[in-house]
Amino acid sequence: MLQGSARAEKRTIRMSAFKDHFSANSAGYAAHRPTYPAALVDFLTDAAPGRDLALDVGCGTGQLSTRLAERFAQVVATDASAGQIAAATPHDRVRYRATPAERSGLPDASVDLVTVAQAAHWLDLDSFYGEVRRVARPGAVLALITYGVLHVADDVADAAADRVVRHFYDAVIGPFWPPERRHVEDGYRSLPFPFAVLDAPRLSITVDWQLADLIGYIETWSAVRAAAKVVGRGPIETFHAALAAAWGDPSAAKRVSFPLSLRVGRVGAVRVGPG
Asked: What's the pLDDT score for residue 112?
């Protein structure tokens, strides 16, 4: 009885440790977070041993889940934030569940592909990796996916806008990023990954955005909301004005790119080299 109580207490502690930075702005997340490129889905689908079931963990509002549903017969998409799940994009082949990463509710050895896009740095990885090993069918693939600081095109005309965004990211709201953000910035290289690594292609998310699109996306950053609570909206509005001045015509579309970092592995295979 005592052991059962201890296990229940441990589960409660892990649940209470969930840092929900996104439920308060789930609608903005759904509207402004970019979707993932078809080339990423193609690579992951080709690497997986089958196309019956994919598990998308930390799914947010379904940016990757719905893309996976184009290639897999069924996708189970989970997120610990009920707000994110409530705002998720519906799809006939996606089942959304508000549940922690380590409690997918899926049968043993049932999943061909497990993905975690822009969320692995929030997880209790030991527990999550245990769940991955449980639900993975032989030869299943696990992919941790993240993107860091965006770039506004590459040509000279757009360099001013790019500099404004970078200054805001580093100098203005830099102190307000949660500590887990460092894992995003290093492309998840510092996260443990005890799986046999698969070579992944170099990929980026690319979008053509107007000024309002980029501002809407930046407003979804956890550090922006944290800064607003501490210092108010003044520095954020100053950034908006500076970006507008650098952008020019607000209706003009500019190419915005998000380089992807991937850690992809075969579950159950022997790991080679450092994690």
From this structure: 98
**DSSP output for 202-243:** --EEEEEE-HHHHHHHHTT-HHHHHHHHHH-SHHHHHHHHHH
Distance CA 226, CA 242 (A): 21
Alpha carbon distance 221, 37 (integer Å) = 21
The two three-digit tokens of residue 192, written as one number: 């443990």
Return averaged pLDDT per consecutive 10 residues of the chain, 275 residues in all.
30 39 54 90 98 97 97 98 94 98 97 97 96 98 95 78 96 95 94 97 95 95 95 98 96 95 86 48
For residues 176 and 244, what is the distance between their CA atoms, to the nearest angstrom? 23
| Block residue for tokens 């069924």 | 74
Residues 23, 84: contact at Cβ < 8 Å?
A: yes
Beta bridge partners of 259: 204
CATH of 2-266, one of 3.90.1170.50, 3.40.50.150, 1.10.287.370, 3.40.50.300: 3.40.50.150
In this predicted structure, what is the pLDDT of residue 5?
29
Element (H, E) at 36: none
Alpha-helical runs (H) found in 110-197: 125-135, 159-167, 181-185
Which residue type, as a one-letter code, is found at position 50? Answer: G
Largest CA distance in the chain: 68
